[in-house]
Design goal:
It contains 27 helices and no strands. It is elongated, with a radius of gyration of 31 Å.
Length: 577
């Protein structure tokens, strides 16, 4: 207790050592300060932690300071509790004043560093508690509206702090008996934040087309927009006194949102971003963007008709972590009885194919054309992989619907889209029994009759390949195991003993316990395999691999509580919590 303040004072300027030293506060038995008459050492330690908060600007140190002071505010008693709470209140007031002063300085033309570091401090404080202030939200909105040329990182921290204040205001409203003043105040802040977010949805898309680096700000705009839509989901408030706060985004804004998300997904991992901050990379990388978009679907915040296929069309395009997120999303959607999985899969295939056709029309980058066509094939194989074993019997109608919609799409504007047959439908045809092939073959050939294929033989090659595949599939005369008629099997040698016949003892008397266990396990070995296999087929695909918990934690919470109407306060994981 005596040496701890000395250590803090000695290493206060050292960014590498001060954070773990501050974390030690949460390992101490704080009641010993009173028992051992060491109150002054406790106060000295708290004072030094507050000093460290205002001396440093890195995430680890700031977060450690807030956690340590909050720990003291919950674990201390009597005078020490009062002292810790007063220090936290003083820290809060001083920080708000610093942010307001820094905003005025930037508006006057000064450097933005002081504003940036104090916005980071405010962000860490708001992750743990609401910050009482007078007009700070309006000050942040004003500078964001008027100074468009500020550093992108400053803009991103202005937006995240505005969002956290909105979230805390919503959390503070009494749902049963809300006051008109609180609702009007929150509604005003909601409109102001949406105004800024929608402005950046448009502007940042254009910036990226011009080659300007906006990765950090774009990611923040995507995640905060998704969080705002989830937070104010219209159906959550439709039957409450807060119905005026409910919000349903128009399709136009959902499309702009996804356009910006898509640009973030397409940024190469090797691309360096001059405004990227490694401290907050987990909040601003492509995984954070994909999770934000997926949460909108799992929470039924926006229509699945547009956003669902757009997300799934990127299933195999951006590496293992993104694939894992989308795989979890599909598994969750398949559990929802209202989800049209066949339409989802077909639309996803159509959109990835249309991206390939767009590259083909441009005709400039052959490598990009080949890559996009390969992505279409890979996506078809991956989606068809959901129909294996017993699942393809149970969901055969889905497979047929995907093929029927795909054939219809391929024969629009002949013969330009015929390659869709070969690129996207062949894997699904292989999941059908031979008895379903003749109808598909007849339909395909009927659509091509009375057409002279010799006018453009290369364009009709995918059609001929697809027809040949159908004929080969039908010729193999494959029948699913469940459809086979049981026929007696001729066996050579001694006939097998019936499975259900008990094993006979060579000697008279009762079986021993060892013999019973052998007999039981033998019968289980013969009779349980089929059931286990069917159970395995019925398992969600997500259970066939070990997911990365750090990547899917927020998605799991939404998939389990997507329809919940409970409002929650912001948590320590930030805007992606």
């Amino acid at each position: 207790m005596k040496r701890y303040p000395q250590l803090l004072r000695k290493y206060l300027p050292d960014k590498a050592k001060i954070s773990p030293l501050i974390d030690m506060m949460m390992l101490l038995k704080l009641e010993m300060y009173s028992l051992k008459r060491q109150e002054q050492n406790f106060k000295a330690a708290i004072d030094l932690i507050v000093d460290a908060f205002f001396k440093h600007g890195d995430k680890d140190t700031l977060r450690s300071c807030i956690k340590a002071i909050a720990f003291c505010c919950t674990k201390c008693q009597a005078d020490l509790l009062d002292y810790a709470e007063n220090k936290l209140k003083t820290l809060e007031d001083e920080l708000v004043l610093k942010v307001k002063t820094a905003i005025k300085e930037v508006e006057a033309g000064d450097d933005e560093y002081s504003l940036l570091v104090n916005l980071k401090r405010l962000h860490e404080l708001q992750l743990s508690k609401p910050v009482k202030n007078d007009g700070l939200f309006e000050d942040m909105y004003r500078i964001l509206s008027h100074l468009k040329e500020m550093d992108n990182e400053v803009k991103s921290f202005l937006l995240i702090n505005m969002f956290l204040e909105v979230a805390w205001c919503l959390h503070a409203i009494d749902v049963e008996n809300p006051s008109e003043t609180s609702i009007e105040g929150l509604s005003s802040k909601q409109r102001s934040l949406f105004e800024q977010l929608y402005y950046f949805l448009v502007v940042l898309s254009n910036y990226q087309k011009e080659g300007r680096s906006t990765t950090v700000l774009s990611s923040r705009v995507c995640t905060i927009t998704a969080e705002m839509w989830c937070l104010f989901k219209k159906s959550k408030y439709s039957s409450t006194k807060l119905k005026n706060l409910g919000y349903l985004p128009q399709l136009e804004y959902v499309q702009k949102f996804w356009k910006l998300c898509e640009q973030q997904l397409n940024i190469s991992d090797d691309t360096e971003d001059e405004d990227a901050n490694e401290e907050y990379i987990e909040d601003t990388n492509r995984d954070a963007v994909m999770i934000a978009a997926a949460k909108l679907l799992l929470a039924d915040t926006v229509s699945k008709d547009y956003l669902g296929p757009e997300i799934v069309s990127h299933y195999v395009s951006h590496g293992a972590s993104t694939t894992e997120i989308i795989k979890h999303l599909i598994t969750a959607l398949k559990k929802n009885a209202n989800s049209d999985i066949a339409a989802l899969f077909f639309e996803a295939l159509r959109r990835v194919y249309e991206r390939y056709m767009a590259y083909l029309r441009e005709g400039e980058n052959q490598n990009l054309i080949a890559k996009s066509y390969s992505e279409c094939q890979d996506l078809a194989n991956r989606l068809a992989g959901y129909y294996v074993g017993a699942v393809r019997i149970k969901n055969k109608s889905e497979i047929l619907k995907i093929i029927q919609c795909g054939v219809q799409f391929a024969f629009v504007d002949l013969p330009k889209q015929l390659s869709f047959l070969e690129a996207a439908l062949v894997p699904f045809v292989s999941k059908l029994p031979s008895s379903d092939i003749p109808d598909i073959l007849t339909d395909v050939q009927k659509r091509a009759q009375d057409i002279d294929m010799n006018e453009d033989p290369s364009a009709w090659r995918p059609y001929l390949t697809f027809v040949e595949h159908l004929r080969e599939k039908h010729a193999r005369n494959e029948v699913f195991h469940e459809e086979k008629e049981e026929k007696p099997v001729k066996r050579r040698g001694r006939p097998r003993k019936p499975r259900d016949e008990p094993v006979r003892n060579l000697f008279d008397g009762n079986k021993s316990s060892d013999e019973e266990s052998v007999s039981d396990s033998d019968q289980r070995g013969h009779g349980g395999d089929d059931d286990d296999e069917d159970d395995a087929f019925d398992q969600p695909l997500i259970n066939t691999f070990r997911p990365s918990a750090s990547k899917l934690r927020s998605l799991k919470g939404v998939s389990q509580q997507g329809t919940s109407s409970q409002r929650k306060a912001p948590t320590a994981s930030g805007s992606n919590s």
